[in-house]
Design a protein that fits this description.
Helix content: 25-40%
Radius of gyration: 21 Å
Bound molecules: zinc ion
Shape: globular
Largest sheet: 7 strands, mixed
Oligomer: single chain
Number of strands: 17
Amino acid sequence: MNCRHCRHCRQPLDHVFLDLGFAPPSNAYLSAEDLRRPELYYPLKLYVCDHCWLVQTEDYARADELFRPDYAYFSSVSQTWLAHAARYSAMAQQRFGLGAQSLVVEIAANDGYLLKNFVAAGIPCLGIEPTASTATAAEALSIPVRREFFGVALGRRLADEGRRADLLIGNNVYAHVPDIDDFTAGLREALKPGGVITLEFPHLLRLMEETQFDTVYHEHFSYLSLYSIQRIFQHHGLCVWDVEHLPTHGGSLRVYGGHQADGRSATPSVAAVLASERQAGLRELTTYQAFQSRADQIKNELLAFLIEQKVSGKRVAAYGAAAKGNTLLNYAGVKPDLLPFVCDAAPSKQGKYLPGSHIPIVPPSVLREYRPDMVLILPWNITREVLSALDYVHEWEGKFVVAMPRLRMIS
Ligand SMILES: [Zn+2]
């Protein structure tokens, strides 16, 4: 009996898009003490709804289990991301005429990496951030923070308090919410008439085209096309009126939305992106059914490469303890015998272990002592940044390797 239903349109969910077996939550970094305890694995399987075309994980884990209070991701660690945030803030201030009378609200404000730019311009802000460690960091930058999950309940409370937003921002949060309808209804409640919503999320089209299966993890509940977002927005009295392509996270979209009642007409970009999605087959089941074997090929290539290095006595280390690396390593079954450590610049991760693979996380300085022949860059989306930070690896003629979308050497 099929008991699965689409998270948005509630139609039966019959079609598996990708099955990556079982994996622990990607951001559940482990302490040495944790290694002596059992580890919780969840199925990591995506379905596609052939009615509204929302690609989604199966519902089984609650958000408060996945996003633990010690959740280690601090946005400000990535220089690329900080620069992206500063550019966005400057664009938004100018395009929407924001000033001292406005209110900018960011959902998943993290450590204040973005809102600090609005604070510096004298624009009132409010961050929504349930994770205590990052919320504390944001508050230290004079950003008021509500330590809650966002949804329709919080959206209504903000409206009741007279705190509806002129600009309501959600960067890399929309795909991460378990109940996308509750969240979208919250956006409607928390937005002033005439206000603007901007959401950034990895584009499903790019995931499909470039076989970015390592961007699949439990905390990432939905895989979004403009088509599916537009449907969800319309269902909640909202509309998408502009869209832009961004290079972040392997290819993202930034959608601009607002109340349908505002009657704003859509820019030609909206129709153009919808057409490119249709042309790529995002509304045909066969497109989705061809994906698994492409993912398996990448997994096999990485494993073959690591075994080959091991057999020939070459030393390999990895860089970047990011969620996407965990998906790849766990699906490939890579353990410390093939990859002895991973370096990461975030002090909050150093001294811990990757979930599942139990590969230790060490500071990048360890590379100078170990002098690996190869450095596998796991967060391929910031390859350029990593190459410039680790330029010294060339001193001992070390090389760089990226596994996605095809295994390739960068000398
Ligand atoms: Zn559906």
